[in-house]
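Thread: sanity check for a docking pose with 2-acetamido-2-deoxy-beta-D-glucopyranose

Original post by kr_44:
Hi all, I'm comparing my docking run against an independent structure prediction. Below are the sequence and the ligand SMILES. Could someone generate the full complex and paste the structure tokens? I mainly care about where the ligand ends up relative to the chain.
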Amino acid sequence: MEPPSSARAILLFRTTTLVICSFLLLALVHLVVFPNDLELQEEVFASSSSSPCSSSNGATTSGGQLAAAATQPQPVDVRVFLGVLTMPGMYERRAHLRLAYSLQPRPVRAVVDVHYVFCNLDKEEDRVLVAMEIIAHGDILVVNCTETMDAAKTYAYFSAVARLFAGDDERYDFVGKTDDDTHYRLAALADALRDKPRDSMYHGLLNPCHTTLEWQYMSGMGYVVSWDMAEWIATTDETIRNDQGWEDEVFGRWIRKAGKLKNVYGEEPRMYDYWDREMPTEVNCFRHEHVADTVAVHKLKDRLKWARTLYFFNATKGLKPSKMYDVDRLNSNMYRV
Ligand SMILES: *[C@@H]1O[C@H](CO)[C@@H](O)[C@H](O)[C@H]1NC(C)=O
Ligand SMILES: *[C@@H]1O[C@H](CO)[C@@H](O)[C@H](O)[C@H]1NC(C)=O
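Reply from moderator J.T.:
Ran it for you. Here is the predicted complex with 2-acetamido-2-deoxy-beta-D-glucopyranose included:
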């Protein structure tokens, strides 16, 4: 038996009210219990994520749904996998990099996934400590290689990435490789790559700079290639894999052999080696002081260089006044470039 229509309407009204009230109550509880949830989720998304291709826009985390509905997130139109090639023992360096990337402004309409990459773990302590890092951060990629300065690790990295994500629906457009003494500004990188072709693309700082030599290649500080290049590396033959020499120059040779030296973008002067007035060296085409629209700074070999660089890019701007520390004292003695 169907209830009369007025009774049905009342029933429907009551059910709807109940659902809405439950939802609002849940939302309220969520906001009270996790007031910083939205912020935290966004930071995690901006720096790295262990399942990068699972979200189609910038605000799909559960905590972000209310905000997302209100602000209409823009669809992602560039996806980058950026591997920081480092070694297991570089714990402090990884801590600096993670801090720096988590405090950067979030890239807009872009996914830039930063992962720390090393060869097989062969020390007992690293197996334990790195396992803990993986649990806490989920941003480590271990590839099958041995630590050397030749191109074996570069080869292992690009082919591992190509194989790992080959079947994904939302594939990365670009794959990058960088050093652990380089600081990329991820939003600037995403903006630089957004309009670039999705094939035969090679982006970085041309080395040697200011030359007409045939054999220019992208400096090892960091370079990004289109997905087809990573795929090509993963399926290429032994002769190229065994090409000996300085890894980044070798990489340039691979690209030439692949016939993919087409869409080449040198990012001078927005990618450069660190320099400040206290250094005895001269400024040149690959080394100069910080610039505001930087894509990447390289040769951050010690804590002071990291500190000056991050200070220049306003990494400490978010520091709130508190009884717990003296902000003015923390900032007043900083060197200004
Ligand atoms: C790792 O690389 C070595 C040397 O190339 C190879 O013999 C071995 O089978 C590889 N291991 C895996 C798990 O792929
Ligand atoms: C840092 O912040 C200051 C003050 O808001 C601003 O003038 C400057 O352009 C910022 N620097 C960079 C590199 O964005």
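The chain has twelve helices and ten strands. Hope that helps with the comparison, let us know if your pose agrees.
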